[in-house]
Amino acid sequence: MAEQGYRLFNEGENIKFKTHQEFANDVLIGLSQPLKWLPSKYIYDSQGSRLFKEIMELPEYYLTRTEIGILESKKNQIAEQIGNSEFNLIELGCGDGKKTKILIEQFLKNDRRFHFFPIDISEDSISDFIDCLRGQYPDLRSEGLVSDYFEGLYWLSAQNHRKNVVLFLGSNIGNFTPLKAGVFLSSLWKALNNGDMVFIGFDLRKNTDMMVRAYNDKKGITEAFNKNLLKRINRELNGNFDLDQFEFYATYDVVEGAIQSYLISKIKQEVFIGELKWLFSLKANEPIHTESSYKYLTSDIEDMADKNNFEIIDNYFDPNKYFVDSLWKVVK
Ligand code: AVJ
What we know:
- By secondary structure, the protein is an alpha/beta fold.
- It is built from ten helices and 15 strands.
- Helix 4 (98-109) links the parallel strand 3 (87-92) and strand 4 (114-120).
- It starts with 5 loop residues before the first strand and ends with a strand.
- 36% of the residues are buried.
- It binds N,N,N-trimethyl-histidine.
- N,N,N-trimethyl-histidine binds at residues 55, 63, 170-172, 174-175, 215, 222, 225, 291, 293.
């Protein structure tokens, strides 16, 4: 196992250069469309991740608090459903770890034999997360994988034949369009073995006001979080966006079942992106789409599991049915 507690994939390849080129490319493509858009995954640089941590603590942002409540009250049941054999606990993306720690502590308490592998493309996030876990749980066997989700999963399956339990918490799946969520789930199924499990968090459809408020907090943290996309383009691609000339707007699309977030140009303006040597125009009141956060019906979740050959083992709801953590088994 690597000394520093994590394993780097793509060694020899310049991953930072590649990520930078992809960012430049995606910005050029997105902002060239008739309906301009930017991929939300680029919000999460160090500043964006810090802002997201603040969002998780906001009174309006019910998601994190609700999921923590579910994990706290169902952790015993969840541990039982996962079964008694030795397993790999794999987390896709490392959040702040608060939720993961609830499960890890439960498994340690029950003397379960497991190895923890967080997978994330950011070396800094993995390194911080592993340091924190090793400090807090000296008995935990853990190794971070700095890689693409699927690259990490395939590597793990080739390393050992333990059962895999994959965590994808926080309704992170909600950033994918239904089409992309389908591609993601079928890739996940392919990368796993018969009997492996996935544990996925879904934010459920509910009162529209409550959902809209969660993405329009009073302190303006969500606005800063979305605007971080422009800030990042300014810093990394030498852009000259004036953040004050954009209005943040997040609305619930009842038909799509998604919160759609936008940055709307307040004025007719031109923006120059130095690295792309590109000057482009925005009309007054023209939107840039920055994020979709899908909300689900329980029937959507059943359909997604069904379609992709997963069997639902159990659904863990909070008392208000705001959120669900769904435990699925791979059927091959
Ligand atoms: C991390 C994707 C689950 O969509 O609710 C929070 C991100 N965006 N506030 C979400 C987010 C605005 C969040 N996810």
